[in-house]
Structures are given as structure tokens and as C-alpha cells.
Amino acid sequence: MNKEIKIAENSYWVGYVDDRKVPFHRLILEKGTTYNSYLLKTDKATVIDTVDISFGRKIVDNVKEYMDPAEIKYIVINHVEPDHSGGLPALANKAKDAIIVTTELGAKELKEMYRLHDREFLIVKDGDKLDIGGKTLVFFETPYLHTEETMITYCIEDKILYPCDIFSSHVATYDLFNDLADEDIIEDFETYYKLIMHPHRPYVQDMIEKIRDLEIDMIAPSHGYILREDVQKYIDIYEQSSKATTEDKQALILYSSMTGNTRKLAKELKLGLEERKIESKVINVKDNSNLEDIKEEIKAADVIFFGSSTRYADLVGGLEEVLKELKEMDLSTKFGVAFGSYGWSGEAIEVINDYLNDTNIKVVDSSYVIKNTGMDNLRFPIRVKFSPGEYEKKELKDSAHLVADLLIA
Ligand SMILES: Cc1cc2nc3c(=O)[nH]c(=O)nc-3n(C[C@H](O)[C@H](O)[C@H](O)COP(=O)(O)O)c2cc1C
């Protein structure tokens, strides 16, 4: 490590500056990045987050500049992605008695990733406190910021928030504090927000509520600049940007049904969209429906759901006639989602998806969702066996919420 970077009394940066062009989430980070790790050298010395898996030995060396790593009592892992937890195996190997502090899901994933089944874990939940001997840490669960297991850590005495990926920026810099930056850092900060956090903006709003009453003098994230000047300005950027509205967006739900089950799915999707303030029109497409009218409705919509149940491995009603028209339309600015009720194989839903893939519409299927949001808890196209129960109704609403979020990405 080149120089001591002290962030508060007995608290030091022990991370790594990666000034290569770093490949990350199918991007090349032209300005590199930093993996910020922090050592709180209290009576129960604590490391908060580590470094990328490629630099595990560096964090051990950095800690050694301040203390014997064997004396570390706690290692806090806010987020398990290997650019932050990657130094854990090397560090835990030296800190043999250290307790790993993380969320329940975080512990499950870390054990699998690094074969840490024999290590002691402390599972924390929203608002739990930990006395580390001279300082007190409080933990808040912040799911999907940026993956499901994520939490953030706040030190009461230092008034420092350690939010891991949240409030980060991808810049390789040795002048780690924002007031020392020789350039305006807002663009990098906003770019990071847009790419990593914005797809999860409802969760950003939840996080803002959790930290609203904390006194925060400094934000010490895990990439890029540590924010100690104009701290509120950066929180405000997250709050304002995550409020982006869906009010001017319109959805169209087209369906065909034999006995009304697919109609029930359409109804739940509409309710879910309305909860996100998206106006939606539902049309039952029959054999004699007016195709020109439906095409006008499609042109006016930002997202179109196409639903059919399956009858002898085929679509029902008049939906296929509509699907045949799509190829001739410019749908490049719109999202398309296939759905349907089925009994055992649900071929119609897959056929709808094939039709959509043959147009220039943005097809919301599981592959698209994973690649654009990192979320894999909902399945697209939307398939429900027979009539939706309470569980399926909730999933349908969640699916509608996710599509609503895609609309303002
Ligand atoms: C005559 C008939 C044929 C069916 N064929 C299939 C089929 O090939 N594959 C399948 O998964 N489900 C099949 N089903 C089950 C329906 O898709 C299922 O009952 C669905 O919930 C009906 O939804 P709806 O009320 O929206 O039409 C069939 C049902 C009927 C009555």
C-alpha cells in the first residue's frame, strides 16, 4: 500500500486500486475502479468488505500494515459479489477466529462460493447492532442493491455509512476522497447509478427511507470516491433519480381464453400495472375482433402483453391473427411479454414468444430480465397452470411491477 488512508479515528482504507481497463457486467470500465475495503481497528477489530477475488493477497498485506490479521474479530460482508467478497478466503485464512457478519442469504451464498461451511457466521437483520469495542455498527438490509442478499453498514460513533455498491463510482484513484478529486465526479457517479442501481429503483427508494434519519458525515462505498463533502447531494441524486415516473406510460393486454383462466391472469397483470401507475387496456381477442382497431391500440402502447391458453398444443381465439400482423409493424420502442394459462405443457405461450422474437419488439423473457436487471426470481414468459391461486396472483403482480420498472429504465 502506498500511503496510509485514514477515514476516521482508528479506521483505515485497506482496499486496492485497479487501474486497468476492467471488464465488468459486459462493459469495459475505461477508468478502472477501486475495491474499497475498510479496517476499523477497535478492540474487536473489524474489516468491512474486501477486494476483488484477483487481489486477495493484497488485502491481507494491507491489513498487516496496521495489525496482525489473526487478531481480526469480525469480517463484515455487505454484498457477496466477488469484487467485494473475493478477498474473504485469503483474509479468513489468516484471521482464523474471525466471525463473518452478513445477511442470512449472504451467509448461504458465501458458504457455497468459498466452502466456508466450518466458519462461524453472525447473521444480521434490519436494524441489528454490533458492538465492536469502541464503535457500534448497525446493519440495514438493502435487497437488490445490487443483488438480493445485500445489506449496508452504519457506524454510529463515526457517522460513516458503508453502503458497498450503493453510492459508488467506477474510477481508479489514489486521491480517494471526493473533495480531493481534480475533476467533477458527478458524471461517473450518475453513470454508475444508472447502470447498476436504476434497474432496481423501487429498492433504492426503500433504502433511502432506511437511511433518512441517520446522521451521515461520510459515505464510504466499495468503488471509487469516498464522499465526505456535500454528502446529502449524492443521497439526493439517488432519491430524485429513483423517483422516475411511469405515469405517461401505457400498457395493452391482449388475450384469448377458453374458460376464463387466461382472463384472470390478464386481470392480475392489470392490477399490478395500476399499482405502478401504468394505465392499461385489456382486450379479449376473439376470432371476429377488428384487427385494424387492435393494431392502433398496439401502436399507442409502450408495452403489450400477449396471452393465450393452450388447446391441443396450439393457441386459442383470435390472438394468432394479431401476432401475424406484428412483423410488418415497427415495435422497436416497445416491450412485448407472452403469457398464458395452461394445463401440462403450455405450447401456446412459447409460440407467442416465437412470434415476438420474429419482430423488432423488446421481448421480455427470462434471458432479457436476467441480462438487464440481474434478477432471476420471476419466470418470463409468464406461465400459470390452470387458474391462478394466491401465490400465482402475487407472482403476476410482481411480474407486472418488474415490467413497469423496465419501462422507465
Ligand atoms: C380441449 C383442451 C385441450 C387442451 N390442450 C392442452 C395442451 O395441449 N397443453 C396444455 O398444456 N394444456 C392444455 N389444456 C389445458 C388448458 O390450457 C388449461 O385448462 C387452461 O387453464 C385453460 O385456460 P383458459 O381458461 O384461459 O382457456 C387443454 C384444455 C382443453 C379443454
From TrEMBL:
It comes from the Bacteria. GO terms for molecular function: electron transfer activity; FMN binding; metal ion binding; oxidoreductase activity, acting on NAD(P)H. Residues 251-404 form the Flavodoxin-like domain. Transmembrane segments: none annotated. In the N-terminal section; belongs to the zinc metallo-hydrolase group 3 family. This is Flavorubredoxin.
